Amino acid sequence: MKTRRDWNAAWGVFLLVIAGFGAAATGQEAERKSVAIRHPNLLLNQTEIDQIKLKVREQPWAARLLDRVKAKAEKDSAVTESALAYALTGEAHYARKVRDRLTGEAREQMPHYAKLDVKAEPEWGRWSWWAPPPGPSTWPMTP
Questions:
Q1: 125 in a structural domain
Q2: Cα separation, 35 vs 90, whole angstroms
Q3: Burial (CB count within 10 angstroms: exposed 0-12, middle 13-18, buried 19+), residue 23
Q4: Phi and psi at residue 32, in whole multiples of 5°?
Q5: Can you tell me the distance from the alpha carbon of 74 to that of 61, in angstroms, rounded to the nearest whole number?
Q6: Which of these, 46, 44, 55, lies nearest to 17 by C-alpha position?
Q7: CB contact set of 76 (below 8 Å; sequence gap of 6+)
Q8: Which pLDDT tens digits describe the chain residue by residue (143 residues)?
Q9: Dist CA 102 CA 104 (whole Å)
Q10: 3-state secondary structure of 119
Q11: Residue 143 pLDDT
Q12: The predicted structure's pLDDT at residue 113
Protein backbone atom coordinates (compact mmCIF):
# COMPACT_ATOMS: atom_id res chain seq x y z
CA MET A 1 0.00 0.00 0.00
CA LYS A 2 2.87 2.34 0.78
CA THR A 3 4.29 1.84 -2.73
CA ARG A 4 0.94 2.76 -4.25
CA ARG A 5 0.79 5.90 -2.09
CA ASP A 6 4.33 6.84 -3.16
CA TRP A 7 3.40 6.44 -6.81
CA ASN A 8 0.23 8.47 -6.29
CA ALA A 9 2.23 11.26 -4.67
CA ALA A 10 4.80 11.12 -7.47
CA TRP A 11 2.05 11.38 -10.06
CA GLY A 12 0.55 14.28 -8.15
CA VAL A 13 3.86 16.17 -8.21
CA PHE A 14 4.28 15.34 -11.88
CA LEU A 15 0.80 16.64 -12.76
CA LEU A 16 1.31 19.79 -10.71
CA VAL A 17 4.59 20.52 -12.48
CA ILE A 18 3.09 19.74 -15.90
CA ALA A 19 0.18 22.07 -15.17
CA GLY A 20 2.65 24.84 -14.33
CA PHE A 21 4.73 24.20 -17.44
CA GLY A 22 1.65 23.97 -19.64
CA ALA A 23 0.45 27.38 -18.53
CA ALA A 24 3.90 28.86 -19.04
CA ALA A 25 4.33 27.26 -22.47
CA THR A 26 1.17 28.78 -23.93
CA GLY A 27 2.33 32.28 -23.07
CA GLN A 28 5.84 31.67 -24.35
CA GLU A 29 4.89 30.29 -27.76
CA ALA A 30 4.18 33.78 -29.08
CA GLU A 31 7.59 35.10 -28.06
CA ARG A 32 10.28 32.55 -28.87
CA LYS A 33 13.12 35.02 -29.28
CA SER A 34 15.89 35.08 -26.70
CA VAL A 35 14.72 34.38 -23.18
CA ALA A 36 16.90 35.51 -20.31
CA ILE A 37 17.13 32.92 -17.57
CA ARG A 38 16.69 34.32 -14.09
CA HIS A 39 18.22 32.44 -11.21
CA PRO A 40 17.43 30.48 -9.19
CA ASN A 41 15.69 28.33 -11.80
CA LEU A 42 16.17 24.71 -10.86
CA LEU A 43 12.74 23.14 -11.18
CA LEU A 44 10.38 26.09 -11.57
CA ASN A 45 10.93 29.79 -12.05
CA GLN A 46 9.01 32.47 -10.15
CA THR A 47 6.43 32.98 -12.89
CA GLU A 48 5.63 29.27 -12.95
CA ILE A 49 5.43 29.17 -9.15
CA ASP A 50 2.98 32.09 -9.21
CA GLN A 51 0.86 30.33 -11.85
CA ILE A 52 0.74 27.14 -9.77
CA LYS A 53 -0.22 29.13 -6.64
CA LEU A 54 -3.10 30.64 -8.61
CA LYS A 55 -4.23 27.19 -9.74
CA VAL A 56 -4.07 25.93 -6.14
CA ARG A 57 -6.33 28.80 -5.03
CA GLU A 58 -8.80 28.39 -7.90
CA GLN A 59 -8.84 24.66 -8.69
CA PRO A 60 -9.78 22.00 -6.13
CA TRP A 61 -7.73 19.32 -7.91
CA ALA A 62 -4.59 21.46 -7.69
CA ALA A 63 -5.20 22.10 -3.99
CA ARG A 64 -5.53 18.33 -3.42
CA LEU A 65 -2.26 17.73 -5.27
CA LEU A 66 -0.50 20.31 -3.13
CA ASP A 67 -1.91 18.64 -0.01
CA ARG A 68 -0.44 15.33 -1.20
CA VAL A 69 2.93 16.95 -1.85
CA LYS A 70 2.90 18.47 1.64
CA ALA A 71 1.90 15.13 3.18
CA LYS A 72 4.79 13.38 1.45
CA ALA A 73 7.17 16.13 2.56
CA GLU A 74 5.99 15.73 6.16
CA LYS A 75 5.94 11.94 6.26
CA ASP A 76 8.97 10.93 4.20
CA SER A 77 11.13 14.06 4.49
CA ALA A 78 11.43 13.97 0.71
CA VAL A 79 13.71 16.78 -0.42
CA THR A 80 12.02 17.58 -3.74
CA GLU A 81 8.55 17.60 -2.22
CA SER A 82 9.72 19.69 0.73
CA ALA A 83 11.34 22.22 -1.60
CA LEU A 84 8.23 22.35 -3.75
CA ALA A 85 6.02 22.74 -0.67
CA TYR A 86 8.21 25.62 0.52
CA ALA A 87 8.13 27.33 -2.87
CA LEU A 88 4.34 27.07 -3.05
CA THR A 89 3.42 27.81 0.58
CA GLY A 90 6.32 29.87 1.92
CA GLU A 91 6.22 27.83 5.16
CA ALA A 92 9.74 27.96 6.61
CA HIS A 93 9.69 24.50 8.20
CA TYR A 94 9.80 22.95 4.70
CA ALA A 95 12.89 25.02 3.87
CA ARG A 96 14.53 23.91 7.14
CA LYS A 97 13.90 20.26 6.25
CA VAL A 98 15.57 20.71 2.87
CA ARG A 99 18.51 22.62 4.34
CA ASP A 100 19.02 20.05 7.10
CA ARG A 101 18.88 17.14 4.67
CA LEU A 102 21.25 18.70 2.12
CA THR A 103 23.78 19.88 4.71
CA GLY A 104 23.61 16.46 6.36
CA GLU A 105 24.39 14.74 3.08
CA ALA A 106 27.21 17.20 2.39
CA ARG A 107 28.71 16.49 5.82
CA GLU A 108 28.56 12.76 5.09
CA GLN A 109 30.55 13.32 1.89
CA MET A 110 33.17 15.60 3.43
CA PRO A 111 35.51 12.79 4.58
CA HIS A 112 35.82 11.58 0.99
CA TYR A 113 36.80 15.02 -0.28
CA ALA A 114 39.17 15.62 2.64
CA LYS A 115 41.17 12.57 1.50
CA LEU A 116 41.06 13.51 -2.17
CA ASP A 117 44.48 13.75 -3.76
CA VAL A 118 44.12 15.56 -7.08
CA LYS A 119 47.61 14.54 -8.15
CA ALA A 120 46.80 10.88 -7.57
CA GLU A 121 43.35 11.24 -9.17
CA PRO A 122 43.84 13.78 -11.98
CA GLU A 123 40.59 12.78 -13.68
CA TRP A 124 38.54 13.96 -10.68
CA GLY A 125 36.46 17.02 -11.54
CA ARG A 126 37.19 16.92 -15.25
CA TRP A 127 34.10 15.11 -16.37
CA SER A 128 31.94 16.92 -18.89
CA TRP A 129 28.72 16.23 -20.77
CA TRP A 130 30.28 17.33 -24.02
CA ALA A 131 33.68 15.73 -24.21
CA PRO A 132 35.82 13.13 -22.53
CA PRO A 133 38.37 14.43 -20.03
CA PRO A 134 41.68 15.45 -21.53
CA GLY A 135 44.34 12.84 -21.09
CA PRO A 136 47.01 10.92 -22.95
CA SER A 137 44.46 9.01 -25.05
CA THR A 138 42.33 12.02 -25.99
CA TRP A 139 44.66 15.03 -26.05
CA PRO A 140 45.56 16.41 -28.47
CA MET A 141 42.43 15.42 -30.31
CA THR A 142 43.11 13.52 -33.48
CA PRO A 143 40.53 12.86 -36.19
A1: no
A2: 27
A3: middle
A4: -105, 20
A5: 20
A6: 44
A7: 6
A8: 556 666 666 666 666 666 666 655 555 555 556 667 666 667 788 888 899 999 999 999 999 999 999 999 988 878 889 999 999 999 999 999 999 998 998 888 888 777 777 777 766 666 555 555 555 554 454 44
A9: 5
A10: coil
A11: 46
A12: 73
For residue 142, being part of any structural domain is answered with no
Q: What share of the chain is helix, strand, coil (3-state, %, to 5)?
A: 65, 0, 35
Question: Is residue 65 a contact partner of residue 16, using CB atoms and an 8 Å limit?
Answer: yes
Q: Is residue 134 part of a domain?
A: no
Domains of the chain: total: 1
Size of the chain, expressed as the number of residues it contains? 143
- Rounded distance, CA 69 to CA 13, Å? 6
Q: By CB neighbour count within 10 A (0-12 exposed, 13-18 middle, 19+ buried), where does 99 fall? A: middle
- Residue 37's SS3 state is coil
At 87, the amino acid letter reads A
Per the structure, the complete domain to which residue 59 belongs is given by 2-30+38-114
